[in-house]
Design goal:
By secondary structure, the protein is of the alpha/beta class. The protein contains 12 helices and 20 strands. Helix 7 crosses helix 8.
């Protein structure tokens, strides 16, 4: 395609700058909903048929659906780090879920989505899963959990500190464990009173704090977070714009939908939990509408990584539900199913309704995009990997704004590169979970593909071919399902992508890696 004349380009640039200035003057409200483990195929607007998501589908009808959107990592904690900071988690040497005693992984004073918007005059709140640590050296569960969300720009925080499948099974409000009794302190290595259930563990890691533990009722977590978010929205004045970051525990295991949703889908508890998620989204949208703020509110709905083939998901798969659609692989892995995620954006009058974008976009880009919207020019070191995607959101740009993206799975050895239509993975497999048999919680890799019936040229009958290459190259434009490894056919592309990858590997700091890594390195 030939370039437009220089004068036309200049005119278009002026129009876009004017649009950005207009958006900054309005300072729209922003609602960011980040689901947990929601796969590319888990929504009606992305092809799901065994469950229904009318509220999220309505967002797509009234806004723009992205088909090549990616989380910063295929893993929860590094993904959330990247979303908030606009930085690749490799810059922190962050690869896996952060453990119980991990301090805050984001440096206080760093530019984050919340600090950016707070600086711009927004009321800011975070409700839901945090999972990027608390404290300077480690969390003080019996004292102040500081620094934490409030030190990164949020005025208000309420949610779960880690993950709903692991300890501590409590809520945190601002700087303290919610409902904690000083007479019954938390103690490491003591069994907790948390309810036992499948796909949940770590009961002996930290106990005590019975009063706080008893406030944590698994099947009420979604409802509780929804109520907190809606109440916060209702309590806002109209004097300042608001930023709501809702990080749901749906649909991470254990699958604990409220009673009203049990049995409502055609794919078991997995689908029921998605139904509860869709209801949560609908309630938040209704609260925005009740304020008369719909037209001046940007809503972004997405997921922290791809779907996981755990036991409940395996049952859903057998019922005909495809958690990651036609994509290869699952959560934790470098294949597309691990990190290509749903992303739906609605902003009436700004984002064209009923449209679809196939341009490459990452959640890392939200920081620079929000900066564009508020008229804030990022300084050097702020959101270093973030690219402003406002023109993509509004449909003003006819071309991709991002050409290159780091693919960050759980395994550092499998750190990959996406460049235009190509994706390069310098190892065999996905580098994700290592479960080998159906019925195992961590089923993935070649055995997972055998279970799912997903073809890949390097794998036969759930095992690597003896002659399978030691690295992978896929042309996603021709083969989005990554069925054929074409690394032997394009040495020049491999050389180019290896050069790019080497540059990013050099950014990984020396020292111990942060987070649990499933595959031995």
């Amino acid at each position: 395609m030939s370039r437009p004349p220089r004068m036309v380009t200049a005119i278009l640039g002026s129009i876009i700058l004017s649009l950005g200035s207009a958006f900054a003057a309005e300072k729209p409200n922003i609602v960011l909903i980040n689901a947990d483990d929601l796969g590319y195929g888990d929504l009606g607007c992305y092809g799901a048929t065994k469950l229904k998501t009318p509220n999220i589908d309505r967002l797509a009808t009234e806004g723009r659906r992205f088909t090549d959107a990616h989380s910063p990592s295929a893993v929860c904690s590094p993904s959330r780090y990247g979303l908030l900071t606009g930085s690749y988690p490799l810059r922190k040497n962050l690869w896996g879920p952060v453990p119980l005693r991990e301090p805050l992984t984001v440096e206080v004073g760093s530019m984050t989505l919340a600090s950016l918007l707070k600086e711009a005059g927004y009321d800011t709140a975070c409700f839901g899963k945090w999972h990027i640590g608390f404290g300077e050296k480690e969390p003080d569960w019996n004292g102040e959990l500081k620094p934490g969300p409030l030190e990164l720009g949020f005025d208000t925080y309420f949610g779960i500190p880690s993950v709903n499948s692991g300890p501590p099974f409590v809520y945190v409000e601002n700087h303290r464990v919610f409902g904690a009794d000083p007479e019954d302190p938390f103690q490491y290595g003591k069994p907790s009173v948390a309810k036992r259930m499948p796909e949940k563990g770590g009961y002996g890691a930290i106990g005590g704090g019975e009063a706080a533990h008893k406030l944590y009722v698994d099947k009420r977590i979604g409802t509780t977070l929804k109520e907190r978010a809606v109440d916060w929205l209702k309590g806002r004045s109209d004097e300042r714009p608001f930023f709501l970051y809702l990080a749901t525990t749906n649909i991470h295991h254990p699958f604990t939908p409220a009673d009203r949703f049990v049995g409502t889908s055609e794919c078991g508890r997995y689908g029921d939990f998605v139904h509860e998620l869709d209801w949560i989204v609908g309630e938040v949208l209704a609260a925005v509408e009740a304020r008369g703020a719909t037209d001046n509110t940007l809503v972004v709905f997405t997921s922290d990584n791809g779907g996981m083939l755990n036991v409940t998901a395996q049952k859903a798969w057998k019922a005909g539900h495809r958690i990651n659609g036609d994509l290869l692989g699952f959560k934790f892995g470098a294949w597309e199913g691990g990190h290509r995620v749903p992303m739906v954006v609605r902003w009436p009058g700004k984002v064209p309704a009923g449209t679809t974008s196939d341009t490459l976009i990452s959640q890392i880009d939200l920081l620079a995009t929000f900066a564009e919207i508020t008229g804030r020019k990022l300084k050097e070191g702020e959101g270093p990997d973030s690219i402003g995607q406002l023109e993509n959101l509004t449909g003003a740009s006819p071309k991709p704004l991002r050409e290159t993206l780091v693919i960050s799975p759980n395994s550092p050895k499998h750190l990959g590169i996406r460049h235009r239509q190509w994706v390069y993975i310098p190892q065999r497999g996905s580098g994700g979970f290592q479960g080998r048999k159906p019925g195992e919680h961590l089923l993935a890799g070649p055995p997972g593909l055998a279970f799912a019936g997903r073809p890949n040229s390097d794998i036969v009958d759930g095992k690597y071919r003896a002659d399978a290459p030691m690295a992978q190259l896929y042309n996603l434009e021709e083969d989005p399902a990554q069925s054929t490894n074409v690394i032997a056919d394009h040495p020049e592309v491999v050389a180019e992508l290896e050069t790019i990858l080497k540059r990013y590997r050099a950014m990984v700091p020396k020292g111990p890696r942060i987070g649990w890594i499933n595959l031995k390195q």
